[in-house]
Amino acid sequence: MNNTALANLLFPDITKTIEDYEAKYPERNLPENAVVTRIAPSPTGFVHLGNLYNAIGERLAHQTQGVFYLRIEDTDQKREVEGAVEAVIDAMTFYGIRFDEGATTDGEVGAYGPYRQRQRKELYQTVAKSLVLRGLAYPCFCTEDDLKEMHDQQEAAKDNYGYFGKYAIWRDRTLEEIEAELAKGTEWVLRFRSEGDPENMVAVKDGIRGEVKVQENYTDFVLLKSDGIPTYHFAHVCDDHFMRTTHVIRDESWLATLPIHVQLFDILGWQRPVYCHTATLMKMDGTSKRKLSKRKDPELALSYYREAGFPQEAVMRYLMTVLNSNFEEWMMENPDADSRAFTFSLDKMSTSGSLFDLEKLDHIAKEFLSRQTAQYVYDGLLEWAKKYDTALAERMENKAEFFCNAINVGRGGDKPRKDFGSWKEAAAFLAFYDAETFAYEDACPERADGEMRSAILTQYLDTLNFADTQEEWFAKVKQITEALGYAAQPKKYKKNPELYKGSIVDVTNLLRVALTGRQNAPDIWEISRVLGETETRRRVQAYMNL
RNA sequence: GGCCCGUUGGUCAAGAGGUCAAGACGACGCCCUUUCACGGCGUAAUCAUGGGUUCAAUUCCCGUACGGGUCACCA
Question: What would the pLDDT profile of A384-432 be if each residue is shown by its tens digit?
């Protein structure tokens, strides 16, 4: 076979060489241990947790004065969705992920571009041509049906799947045969001519898993698709080499194709990046675990957390606790620190798939929000409401001070309340304050019978004085309690239940329900202060008449 | 089916050849408390399994089981 003739036949327009690109994309001038990494989503319009998960590469890069960039893997035109690039950038920006270079909404920045793979066609073809020149790649004219048939044969023969050995029918054709097919205009793909032996194991150092041993690749996989666009495998190798990527962080599902990636790096004489294969996020399905699925699990989509209104920092904290086992400890020691101040390390990453735990996310979010100022909560809630609950946003803007006061109840001090972890929960929790959304919940239990109820509430209204301090107010509540035959201290009642109608718990509970419509609400006196005297009296009266 | 990865309490997990096997979430119990919360304290695990190496293994090696992943001109 005349490789030069074949190369020119296949790529008549390619005149550049690999050296030209080596010169165009020089080694980066960075500190010795600087990490250069990226996220490389395909623009399918679906931004998922995994994208954010892998974006922790940003921490690694910026911790080491390295570079973090965004590359768009748009080699599959069929799956491409309009606006998908914007969606990725928007989502990442929302979570504070900062790109140093790569694709932007209106173009790109950086000296290693283009950062959209389809625009790098010439580069891939140049590398492909060099491979043909070396006798390491050849055209294959198989149709989809041919390949299907091959697969069926292999299945029947219980042979391994793949294009190799006797199944590689275009591997050793003559130049004349190839010319003839080309002349007919038959579509072709470019395949890698693998000399790999499945008996050989190659050791690859994984940044997370340590040494991984994989079987050498023996299949003649596709480098260039029939439209001249590379497959993921080929594009990954070319791009990460020429973009001078030092670390490739990706999901463990790529472990299966690692052999072909290292084979390409090695044969091209390029230094392999440090591969970091992250464990897949799982979910409980019945009694078994399974991979989070795009179709079945809404929580896989990043938009889910935004809609539910989990603060960005809370989501990042949750992700960090899953990603780095020592993060939680660090967070407890530095409760008010920004999660970005944490030093992330690869070797603290888990290698087994973890279950996504929404309850824990909620806990972390509550912890986080409980420590923020009322103003912070107000601003965050308002921003969220503008998008997802416009009626609330309007009310908040009309009564900003009122809402701030409501949010401020139980805030501050050593033991702040933890009533909500997301803006959605906050909206629901705060609803009882505003007269416009206040309602008695159906499930309100009666802790006092009708007669006692009106007796307690009547006396409460009679003695209520907004000039009182909290102590004075409570002293009066106690008086009412005792006057009506209830124990002022729950302990007393517990000891001798027969002596009382109940305890002060019943009285305060009644007041709480009358005032808030529910059993779970902050301190009664504080709530009254926020509601104001008129509204307080109105609600108590209304509850009496219920 | 081939190949790869994984397996410590309900969940997330630390850990090292010799530990009473951390911690967090959740659950439950107790305490604090005028209420709702917060908070404090406490309870629950023989590290999937069989075999080997070793004075000693949950920690190292091999097999098995189970779980997951992957075998496209998708990434």
Answer: 999 999 999 999 999 999 999 999 998 988 889 999 999 999 999 999 9
Assigned token pair, A313: 């920092």
Q: Which two tokens stand for residue A423?
A: 């803006």
pLDDT cut 90: percent of chain A above it: 54
Mean pLDDT computed over A3-24: 94
Q: Hunting for tokens 């270079």 — which residue is that?
A: A101
Task: Measure, in angstroms, how far nucleotide B53 C1' is from residue A215 CA.
Answer: 27
Nearest to A85 by CA among A123, A50, A117, A125: A117
Q: For A194-209, write each residue's pLDDT tens digit.
A: 998 888 888 888 888 8
CB atoms within 10 A of CB A13: 9
CA of A441 to C1' of B25 (A): 29
**Is A5 strand, coil or helix?**
helix
- In the CATH hierarchy, which fold is given to the domain comprising A450-544? Arc Repressor Mutant, subunit A (1.10.10)
Give me the pLDDT at residue A285, please.
Answer: 66
Rg of chain A in Å (alpha carbons): 33
CB contact at 8 A, A194 and A220: yes
B68 nearest neighbour residue (CA to C1'): A290
For A31-115, CATH number out of 3.30.420.10, 3.40.50.620, 3.30.460.80, 2.130.10.10 equals 3.40.50.620
Name the region of A244 (left: φ>0; alpha: ψ -120 to 50; beta: rest).
left
For residues A369-387, one letter each, b for 16 or more C-beta atoms within 10 angstroms of the residue's C-beta and e for the rest, the string is bbebebeebbebbbebbee
Distance CA A525, CA A536 (A): 10
Mean model confidence pLDDT for chain A: 89
Of A363, A441, A377, nearest in space to A409 by CA: A377
Element (H, E) at A247: strand A247-251
**A501 DSSP 8-state letter:** S
Round to whole Å and give the CA distance between A196 and A190.
18
- CA A352 → C1' B56, Å? 29
Tell me the β-bridge partners of A187. Answer: none
pLDDT tens digit sequence for A228-269: 999 999 999 999 999 999 999 998 889 889 999 999 999 999
Q: A472: which residues sit within 8 A by CB, 6+ positions away? A: A465
Is 1.10.357.10 the CATH number for A285-370?
Answer: no
Q: Do the bridges between strand A189-192 and strand A222-224 make them parallel or antiparallel, or are there none, so unpaired?
A: antiparallel
CA of A325 to C1' of B10 (A): 20
Q: Omega before A445 cis (within 30°)?
A: no
Fold of A3-15+121-278: Rossmann fold (3.40.50)
Domain positions in chain A are 3-15+121-278, 31-115, 285-370, 374-430, 450-544
Strand B positions closer than 7 A to protein CB: 1-8, 11-15, 22-26, 33-39, 67-75
